[in-house]
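Entry 14. Structure prediction run on the chain below.
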Amino acid sequence: MISGNATIFNSPIAYACSWNPNLVQNMSRAIAQEALSLGVNQLFAPLGDLARELRYGRVEETFGEDSYLAGEIAYSYVKGLQAGNVSSTVKHFAAYASPEQGLNTGPVHGGERELRTTYLPSYKRAIIDGGAYSIMSAYSSYDGVPCVASQHLLTEILRNEWGYQYWVTSDAGATDRLCDAFQMCQSNPLDKDAIVQYVSFYNLGSTTS
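Output returned:
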């Protein structure tokens, strides 16, 4: 939804180019004020993703390649938005922006060390330090495990290690991919019960959108 009177700010990667977290926080407070005027109290932003695969078609939505800078900008965005009583949804958990050949939803590879030292710090800064009220999981797989159904990401790291207490939502149609793209289950398009039961059975800590 776009309002004719809404302020159109720069693309997210331009926020990072400012190197000005305070300015970003003021901007996100203004965004919250305009969102509330339209009756919107939750936004699907910001990204914790890193621009490490420049063929990826959504590089402009990231805060660049550096995990420290991305974390600081995302943190400031979350703090400003939620100070204005609009919930932030940090996405796409995790490492979504480095898919094979830059293809959206393509698999991501990197191993545990790369995950923890490169990709997770920006998310943790925004989610835990920023106090984000919600998270969106990723369409992709990381080292062969779908992120939307990753016990390691969503339960072991997010819940158990980080102590995250709020909620995780899937991206649009992401739970369907467990059956359609990843071939992990069979389901009628009109019957979501099989997917919900799959996620619940394995205690994966994710909710469907």
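DSSP finds seven helices and six strands in the chain.
Filed with the rest of this week's runs.
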